[in-house]
Queue: 3 jobs
Job 1
Amino acid sequence: MAADCQAWLNANPVDANDLSDSFVSGDEDNGRVSNKNIKNEINGNWLSTSSSNLQEARLKAKAKRRLRKNSSRDSGRGDSLSDTGDIIRGANTAPTSPKTKLLDRKSRLGKGRGLPKKGGAGGKGVWGRSGEVYEQEEVDEKDPNYDEAQVNCVYETVVPPLDERDFEKTLTPIVQEYFEHGDTNEVAELLADLNLGPMHSEVPSLAVVLALESRASHRELTSRLLADLCGSVLTHSDMERSFDKLLQELPDLVLDTPRAPQLVGRFIARAVHDKILSKSYIEGYKGKVDCEYTREALDRAAVLLKMSKGGLRIDNQWGSGGGQSPVVQLIQEMNLLLKEFILSGDLIEAERCLRDLEVPHFHHEFVYEAIIMVLESKGEKTLDLVLNLLKSLCESTIITVDQLRRGYERVYMDIAEINIDVPRAYFILEQFVDKSLSIGIIDVWLRDLCPSRGRKRFVSEGDGGVIKLESC
């Protein structure tokens, strides 16, 4: 055997460079490598390698590199490598990509019915399926956190009592909202949710103080609120203590509301009428009052209660508010206001009463009623008083120029019907309009619109010299 190998070597001489692991002198062309004189050593033996096996190994390596390069993009397709090195695409699995389907909870392998995991009860922060009821957990006495005192413990919501600092901040918005909606039941529910504690008696006094600085309709709502709260949320003793506090604080309330003694007296009279306070409440202060404001408030309440026996309605002393009152009632209140002004001549009180009606959109009716009262009156006193009143109201902008003009024009339109009951209506109206122009409350254009009655001859040709009395 050795002799044969030596003979072969002598016939085929090999250079020393051809004994390395690299290729000898082969040319690489288009991915093909000549396999001339290539030998591999396996377990110490030199073996010859065919060109077909080498080409197959190169194709497999190239396919594996391509597969690794596209693995992140084509993951889940089910690609595989055949024995020949070809890539076999999965035909049953649809390609998916997280870039096109964000937050996709379906399996990437294409298995299942596409439903959420665990029926929607397995996500982060999820305690279970909606509507799922868990059984009551049994207490383990061997648990190191077991506490026998907490086994039969009952938990309740505890509301801390309000102190003086938080009381006014909490109750003031409730009362102010009540002035807007007027629902006493809502106020009672809100007060029931609060732990007033010893501050129960402060609720009526706070509501009255807020009403003193507000309108007449809000005072009427406050009186209704006190009547509805008494018995359900507040007691009669709470009401008495609250009004006692109001009488003591009158010297301070007068600084902000000069009419506070009279208004508090009206609140006391209304409370006695509504049976919130006892009838002996005012009598209990006789001979025990040193403050003049307290005495004035109690005297006002006593006078109103005596007048109620003569027919005065204390239950409607504040009025029902301009937006809620019917037109007929507003006209009656305006006529009553004008009559009281003619008797007293107090401009300030007349302005206050007109504001308390809370009907600024209806002030043109007040101008109309004032001029009608002048036409129906006798003498110059009423005419001068009404002119001064209209001038004062215009200067204080209670009555606007447009409202004044509408009142005059309405009298101009109705003067023919007014003249039926008042024969001298045309003459008095012309006199009133001229004086209105002289004091500057109307202009020349409005004066020129004033109608005048046509002149008639006292004696005509066919009357036989008889004087017509209707022309006088």
Job 2
Amino acid sequence: MTVPRARRALGARRARRAFCVPAVATCLALLPAVAHADGIRAQQWGLEALHAEDAWRTTQGKGVTVAVLDTGVDADHPDLERNVLDGKDLIGFGAGPGDRPWARHGTAMASVIAGHGHGPEDGDGVMGVAPEAKILPVRVILEDGDPARKKARSSRGGALAEGIRWAADQGADVINLSLGDDSESAHPEAAEDAAVQYALKKGAVVVASAGNGGEKGDHVSYPAAYPGVIAVTAVDRFGERAAFSTRRWYATVSAPGDDIVLADPDRRYYEGWGTSAAAAAVSGTVALVRAAHPELTPVQIKRLLEDTARDSPGGGRDDSRGRGLVDAAAAVEAGGRLGPDKLKPAAHSSTHFGPGPGPHDTGSGAGWAGPAAGGLGVLLLAAAVLLWRGRAPLR
């Protein structure tokens, strides 16, 4: 099928239309100007910032599945075709394929994660961080412009938690949550928190956008603030914290999130900003790490991204950028030096119970301790039996 290309050049920045609103929402804004399809690659500064091409010498994400919990994904987009698996719609109503308010945000995030371009040698369109990874779309929210959005918010409030569990049960290696609630009334939901912990235990790495509240009070955003989540803040092309990016204690790492070129179901390319795009870039990075080192656990991968991040803030981390800018190549390379976590039984502190037995040493005086303790135990047991037999019966 011949797909028409947008022919208008990417224009100057105009007023931004934010999608990050109260209740679970996508954290991205799109600029209305479109870009010439075959000029996209030169504008994808984020790939260079992440050192993605260096990582591609090892892997491009083949064999890894990234669940995109969002507004849906256009599986027929030329930059995504063959990379999108059959997913699940947990909303069940609202706009559909062909309608303007359908799958825009989800398609944009999927393109950042696993776009593979199109045309001769895939030289046109958007290239994602992990172009050989598979996308598992899970529709858990509606677009900002969907007339049914209000209905979905009131009747499908549990879709996010359900979607996280479903994605984990399908074997997703990475779960991308480029969405969140960073309103003043934002609060943790027990079902969502439990779903995140369930996914982590199943081996899925959970990545979420930190929020776009940097100029609106820096309110805590969920699901980014749930334990175990890799929460991603946004930086601009100069490596500085993007003004809109939320600053909070849960920030793990940062990634490109400003002036990001995104694919759209209308077959045009838009320039956007938001921690949504930054989270998608990190999900792509995790896909590369997972492809190269499938034995690593979610905890190890989170720590790996932190330890290999570049441009770390003074003191090692801060609430603006976490541990620094994600480096895909460094993470893939360093992952080869790690082994799978060993399962260890819970142990009490030696403060109360001492360090435990050491190597057997026949030259020390401790050799008699075991037999002596055994004999003492027999005597105590015999005494206990005699005392018990001598008790008066209970009445």
Job 3
Amino acid sequence: MNKRGIKMGKKRTKWMSFIVVAAAFTGFIGDTSVSKSHVQASSYKNGSITIPAKNGTICGAPNYIAYEKGFFKKNGLKADIVAKPANIGDLEAGFTNGKYDVLNGDFQYLPAIQNGAQILAAGGLHQGCIQVLVPKNSSIHSVKDLKGKSIGTPGQGSTGQYVATIALQHAKIDPKTGVTWKTYDFDLLAKATEKGQVDAISTVDPYAYQAVKEDHFRVIADNNNSSNSDKMAKMGMKKSGSCCYLYLSEKVVKEDPKKAAAIVKSYKEAAQWIDKHPAATADILLDKKYVAKTSFVDKKNVTALIKSYHFSLKHGSGKADLKYYAKELKKAGFLKSNTNVNKLVTDAYYQK
């Protein structure tokens, strides 16, 4: 080969080397991109979940803390928190068609479950947040004094009505004929009582808490019986009983057990964190606008309420509490008269 051929060969070799290096470099970049995608995907190994939780309640704290403190992500879940439908029928439909995956809510959902709602309870999340109240100057001093009186609640079939009903039953008063029920918006209940439109109210926090603290209402029954009061227990307020529960989509439980377990673990860790950090939880709820701040709903009062709820995910005792409320709701006619309570709760409970 002549000198020119040798030079050309060398140039060709250098050029080919450059192409190989460039290709390798391009491949390296491509691999890096794939690697990043892989890392991102692996951080959500249990997929995505949608939580209908944005409704401004302090009770919803586990949803927000599991998201904000990274418990969902830690357990391989990409969470999306959306508005909670006001209509329970829309909520039921969302779980049936796979739109929603998990929520926290009270024993109000038992009749919905009996009527086919595709959700399963997975444990109690916190103790009570509902009280039966009367104005400070009322002649009513016990649940027995409510006979023949009118009671305001946020709505028919609301948990406020359920709690008042349980108290009435334990006082031997027929909740259907022994009192008159009236419905008002949450923020109008206390005013309705002060105006004499109703004799008592049964409502949720922070409205109940505000009525007591600012308007000096008296507590007749409180379903947060964390003090294990015998007096409240005699009114049907279960000792250390869970009021709100974690509910999972039945579809998720059946089709993706690993995802279901990851969801439960996330809420358990969130509840534990809340119980240890009530003030920090209040900051997050208010600063991130999960709970609307007002002159009353401030850090001090939100922290006090969080402390009183004793957040903790209770699987075994939660089931016993749910069974207790199912019996009470059956007695009141909110569940079918032929309801087999043991079967209903067993079928409606997440088995780990």
